[in-house]
């Protein structure tokens, strides 16, 4: 059997983080088996579906690196096929037209509620002849669901799950205007697209019992099911925006790398031994549905930050420069040019060791390409008082005739200068950091001086001696 999975989002908003994980699991399972990963946009809710949301979903999947096979399918464009199946079910006796008016159904529910009964359709048109239909009422089409026995779903995650058929009613397949419902459309599309494995959130589990009945009414083979527990916040509560229930584009804007987010989402509810760092190639190699746990996973930004820091240290320096340059240019309000990009790329090995997000990386790198005079912030201001400025002015004169401009030689010369003054190296190096980086935090300051070059280093020291 060739594995076929699908991701089927509704385009009513962004690609949220739970949906991204569902897409990832489907993608990995298909790639692991050398199968097919399909994308279906479930846009039958025309009032809430938007083109902007479709684009956001496509962009989110592309950014995550989850490529789908073939073209994305619009469920709405297949509505004629869905209706055709509903009419086939009527012809075979597995569905029927229901002429109950909205007012009649509302009265039925009110009676059930008053009697303490479950509110569900009572089957009043289930066995009636359509010749009894009231004039002027357009019928819906309902599934003639089995009333006896039970429906059993053997789920890869949840195990064997059962429901008594008496708890399920005759759901609507076609609305009175002839448009198909979600429950019908999903089944028809999954069948027609030859989907072999339906991997989705466990909030769909109750839908599955109803959908199984449609498969059986049509005599179609069932796909295999895997219902994934939902993601909760770190406090165990249902995931909300404050926990991280954001669109994928928000994580991109917060400075996360797609490979880090893939690894993090993979470990949210799935495991393979003690492995935490699982690059995508390794994930494709080992992913299986048996590794999905039954308990809800908890979203933890601290773990995501640490994982992102790991992948940033592995990332190509030029790529990181390309990613942070727009952030720096937006902050500076000016371009940094090719020379600025080259400087950032050469500085990247030292910069990326400490940052956990691209936003942090951009903030820590900005001083390299900021225009002079460099702004000095926070505690760095205190280091550039009269004493600090005097020391650096003298140091600059010691360095000015110096030709061997590399970190080792600059450090040796500065250390000798400090010893001659009877000072520890830090008493000179810290003011130097404040002058060159504008703060008390930077990569090793002598590496910074080497990268800036002799002319720029001396110019920045000279700047701090000028009145501000």
Question: Explain this structure to me?
Answer:
With 468 residues, the protein is mainly α. The chain contains 19 helices and twelve strands. The chain is elongated. α11 packs across α13. The chain has four domains: 157 residues, HUPs (Rossmann fold, 3-Layer(aba) Sandwich), CATH 3.40.50.620; 151 residues, 3-Layer(aba) Sandwich (Rossmann fold), CATH 3.40.50; 55 residues; 85 residues, Arc Repressor Mutant, subunit A (Orthogonal Bundle), CATH 1.10.10.350.
Describe what is shown at a glance.
The protein is mostly helical. The chain has helices spanning 17-32, 51-64, 79-91, 102-114, 182-192, 205-218, 248-253, 258-267, 280-286, 301-314, 317-332, 337-351, 358-369, 380-383, 386-399, 407-420, 425-437, 445-452, 454-464; strands spanning 4-7, 36-41, 73-74, 95-98, 140-143, 150-155, 159-164, 172-174, 197-201, 224-228, 231-232, 297-298. The protein folds into 4 domains: 1-71 and 229-314, HUPs (Rossmann fold); 78-228, HUPs (Rossmann fold, 3-Layer(aba) Sandwich); 315-369; 380-464, Arc Repressor Mutant, subunit A, CATH 1.10.10.350.
Task: State the share of residues found in helices, binned by percent.
Answer: 40-55%
User: Spans with pLDDT under 50 lasting ≥5 residues?
Assistant: none
- Per CATH, which architecture of the largest domain? 3-Layer(aba) Sandwich
Strand content: 5-15%
Biggest sheet statistics: 3 strands, parallel
Q: Any idea of the CATH topology of the largest domain?
A: Rossmann fold
As an assembly, this protein is: single chain
The CATH H-level homologous superfamily of the largest domain: HUPs
What value does the Rg take, in angstroms?
32 Å
């Amino acid at each position: 059997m060739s594995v076929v999975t699908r991701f089927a989002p509704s385009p009513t908003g962004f690609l949220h983080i739970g949906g991204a994980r569902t897409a990832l699991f489907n993608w990995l399972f298909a790639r692991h088996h050398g199968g097919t990963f399909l994308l279906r946009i479930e846009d039958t809710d025309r009032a809430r579906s938007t083109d902007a949301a479709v684009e956001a979903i496509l962009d989110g999947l592309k950014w995550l690196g989850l490529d789908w096979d073939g073209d994305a399918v619009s469920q709405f464009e297949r509505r004629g096929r869905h209706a055709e199946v509903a009419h086939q079910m009527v012809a075979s006796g597995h569905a029927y037209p229901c002429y109950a008016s909205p007012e009649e159904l509302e009265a039925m529910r009110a009676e059930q509620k008053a009697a303490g009964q479950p509110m569900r359709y009572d089957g009043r048109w289930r066995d009636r002849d359509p010749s009894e239909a009231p004039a002027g009422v357009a019928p819906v089409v309902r599934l003639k669901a089995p009333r006896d026995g039970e429906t059993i779903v053997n789920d890869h995650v949840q195990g064997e799950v059962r429901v008594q058929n008496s708890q399920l009613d005759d759901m609507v397949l076609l609305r009175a205007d002839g448009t198909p419902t979600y429950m019908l459309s999903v089944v028809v599309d999954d069948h027609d697209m030859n989907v072999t494995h339906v991997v989705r959130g466990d909030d769909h589990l109750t839908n599955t019992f109803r959908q199984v009945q449609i498969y059986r009414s049509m005599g179609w083979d069932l796909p295999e099911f895997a219902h994934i527990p939902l993601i909760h916040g770190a406090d165990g509560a249902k995931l909300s925006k404050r926990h991280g229930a954001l669109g994928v584009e928000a994580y991109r804007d917060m400075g996360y790398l797609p490979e880090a987010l893939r690894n993090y989402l993979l470990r949210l509810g799935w495991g393979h031994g003690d492995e935490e760092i699982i690059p995508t190639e390794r994930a494709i190699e080992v992913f299986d549905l048996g590794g999905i746990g039954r308990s809800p996973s908890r979203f933890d930004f601290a773990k995501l930050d640490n994982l992102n820091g790991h992948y940033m240290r592995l990332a190509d320096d030029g790529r990181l420069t390309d990613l942070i340059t727009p952030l720096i240019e937006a902050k500076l309000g000016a371009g940094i040019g090719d020379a600025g990009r080259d400087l950032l790329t050469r500085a990247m090995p030292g910069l990326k060791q400490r940052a956990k997000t691209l936003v942090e990386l951009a903030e820590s790198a900005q001083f390299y390409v900021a225009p002079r005079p460099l702004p000095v912030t926070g505690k760095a201001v205190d280091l550039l008082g009269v004493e600090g400025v005097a020391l650096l002015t003298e140091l600059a004169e010691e360095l000015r005739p110096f030709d061997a401009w590399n970190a080792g030689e600059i450090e040796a010369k500065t250390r000798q200068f400090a010893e001659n003054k009877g000072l520890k190296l830090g008493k000179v190096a810290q003011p130097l950091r404040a002058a060159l980086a504008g703060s008390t935090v930077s990569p090793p300051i002598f590496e910074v001086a080497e990268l800036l070059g002799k002319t720029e280093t001396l110019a920045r020291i000279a700047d701090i001696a000028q009145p501000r």
